[in-house]
Amino acid sequence: TVVLRDSRLKPGDVLAVIWQLPDGRTLDIPYVPATVGEVRAPIPASVIAASLGKTVEVTNVILVDGGSGVTSPALALRVQDLPATAFKPPRVVQASNGVLDLNTFSGDAQVFAEPWPLIAAGQTFWLLAKGIRDDGSTYTERLPTPYTVQSAEVETGIRRVLERPQMLRLENASMLRLELKVDLTGGASEASAILFPEGEFVMATVNLNLIAPTIVGAVDGALDPESIPASGVVVKVPPYGGRDAGQMVYVEFNGQNGSHHQTAPLRVPDKTTFLNFTVSKQEVLKSTNKAVAFEYKVALADGALYSTSKPVPLKIEEVVEIVPDPIDFEEVPVGNLSSDYVSEHCEIWTYQLRTRRVANASQAHPYIQGKYHEVVGVDGARIQVRLPWQPRKVRIGYSVSKRIAYHYALSGGISRDYFIEGSGWIEYTSNTYIGYVGFALGDATLILDNITME
Prior knowledge:
Layout lengths: L1 E4 L8 E7 L5 E2 L4 E2 L4 E4 L3 H7 L2 E10 L5 E3 L3 E5 L11 E2 L6 E3 L7 E5 L10 E9 L5 E5 L10 H4 L1 E5 L1 H5 L6 E9 L10 E2 L3 E6 L9 E2 L2 E2 L2 E2 L9 E5 L10 E7 L5 E3 L3 E2 L7 E5 L1 H5 L5 E9 L6 E3 L3 E5 L18 E2 L4 E2 L4 E13 L12 E15 L6 E18 L2 E2 L3 E12 L4 E7 L4 E9 L1
Parallel strand pairs: 10-17, 20-28
Antiparallel strand pairs: 1-5, 2-3, 2-4, 2-6, 6-7, 6-8, 9-11, 11-14, 12-13, 12-15, 15-16, 15-17, 18-21, 19-20, 21-25, 22-23, 22-24, 22-26, 26-27, 26-28, 29-31, 30-31, 31-32, 32-36, 32-37, 33-34, 33-35, 33-36, 33-37
């Protein structure tokens, strides 16, 4: 503050302070009205800030009754630099003893800078967080707006958010550095800003205790292929230690013979819900009778490196195919059938037939041998050889009196029509299960025998 005392000063007089820098620039200082015998002109913080470390020339001009002026001799005034101790480093509110431990709090952190000397509303500052990410890359972020001092912050200091996802990506035991620069002059030049002492904190990232997952259907270190649903192996990820909403998790299967499957990642919804993943059955069965491993991986945030759980080693047991015995009618008594033929793995349904019977001594070798099933139709007659076992492959020996059409009922729908005549094999392999083989018999005679399926 420029203070001028003179008994001639009176109300109505005005003091104008001319403040000139060494480069010739004159800084604006508001005019101040006098009182009886005295006038005081506060020097704005921006003027002092622009003058730090410089010798300025100060001239007082008294405007008598607001009119003609009386100018004082110029005063060479050395404005000293502020000592380094005048500026305190920014800090993280949640840190303790120089350590920012993410296990001790949830959510974002707050970075705080105490009010500094010459702080004023409107000053531009640069508050940056710097560190090393878990992948070795450099992290630098200017903390959120506003980038100028707000009126309330002149008294309370600056508080800005450091988002948790950014902290979660920092390497454990690395240094988090907080850098603060302030342009005390009221401008917005980073080059002329004063650099504060740096705040330094050791990062302690979230401790993960990634216990092993659960493999549905696994018993005593083995997985029976028969227990695996068509959709795949279900892997359940439990509530592991250090789990929190927002983390990313996926499951990885590593087998042999090149078998591998990595699921799509899921975002963790909360701390306790089990996460279910499905691993391709086809990939798992490539390692039949061999050792495999299931594990899951966790990233603390989007873009962070993944940590690996304890694996679950298993042996995929050998696939034992149970194939029904051929249906050859040898155990069925010869004679007319009063109803449709029904066995555990095959049923012959008939519609609008003249006769149906089990007979013997056919000559259509090798398709028809020994006893066989014979049907004699009429116009509109139909037959379905139904396969409750739902095989993917079927073969049927036949002999037919005339050309007829037939088709397959598959899990995805009805196949196109095929045609048979004479004697031979009906053979079909499907990617899905076969429900039945249907014949448009009409008035033909059809003999069936040696029905096999896989």
